[in-house]
Structures are given as structure tokens and as C-alpha cells.
Amino acid sequence: MTMDGFFLLCGHMLGDFMLQNDWQATNKVVPYPRGPQPLEGPEALKYDMEHAAGDIGTIACLTHCSLYTISIVIFSWWWMPLWGIATTFLTHYIIDRNRLARTYMKYCGQEKFATGVFSPWSILAVDFTMHMLVFAAIIAIKSIWPH
Question: What is the pLDDT of residues 70-124, one digit of tens each?
Fold first, then answer.
């Protein structure tokens, strides 16, 4: 069990950095439009275009998270339970699609850290930490509940 964290780190680096292309990185955070859908006119067309962009964001994030999860499985197939694989995929999707690292920094008083001289590396570090905390939880739970 002592190497599990190292192997997860290797899978993370492969999936989150080496296999994520520009299209995935750029589009995985494109949001869906907010508010009620207009029924007609130019606003309806604008809404439809924004909704299509949100679909592209979902597809980009699902593609990235799938490749990421495959990378994790490559480095942990001999010990990672199915619930750990599912947790990896779901939490990665939630963190990346919703920009949780940036949101966390905004609401925890790290706005200058997120936008100042250390940006974008500060956001990347918080994002990385969130993913590592998920892995720490998976390893901890698996050690007390090995099923």
C-alpha cells in the first residue's frame, strides 16, 4: 500500500497534463446558459447557441475525465476497487467542470492569490490539491474497508 499514492500521482500527471489537449482544457468549463429559455426572436437563437456551447463543455469535460480515469486505472488496476474508480471519475468531473479550485479560492479569501502574480499556478496548485485529497480519501477508506 505504500506505493499506491505514488502510482495515483503518476496516473494523475499523465491524465491531467499529458493527455489533456487544448480543446478539452479550453472547453471543459464552458457553462450552460442561465435563466428561462426565450421562446422566439434573437434571444431564443442566442440561448440555443449558448446551450450548444454548454453541451460542448460537457462533452469536453466527459472526454477529459474519461481519459483521466483510464490513466488512473492504468496505474492502479491491481488494487483500486470499482467504487474508487467511479469516485475518481465523478469527483474529477465535478472539480473540473465547475472550476471548484477557483471557486474555493474566491470564497476563502484567496482572490489576490488566484489573480495576482502567482496565477494561474496558484489555481493549478489548489486544483491539484483537491484531486490529491480525493486519492488520500480513497486510500484511507480502502485501508479500513478493503472491499
Answer: 999 999 999 999 999 999 999 999 999 999 999 999 999 999 999 999 999 999 9
- pLDDT, residue 38, reads 61
Residue 97 contacts residue 29 (beta carbons within 8 Å) = yes
Check: CB of residue 72 under 8 Å from CB of residue 85.
yes
C-alpha span between 50 and 31 (Å, rounded):
8
Model confidence, pTM: 0.87
The span from the CA of 38 to the CA of 48, in Å, is: 9
Find the Cα–Cα–Cα–Cα dihedral 135, 137, 143, 147, rounded to 10°. -90
- Say how far apart CA 77 and CA 128 lie, in whole Å: 22
The whole-angstrom separation of Cα 23 and Cα 64 is 10
3-state SS, one letter per residue, for 84-145: HHHHHHHHHHHHHHCCHHHHHHHHCCCHHHHHCCCCCHHHHHHHHHHHHHHHHHHHHHHHHC
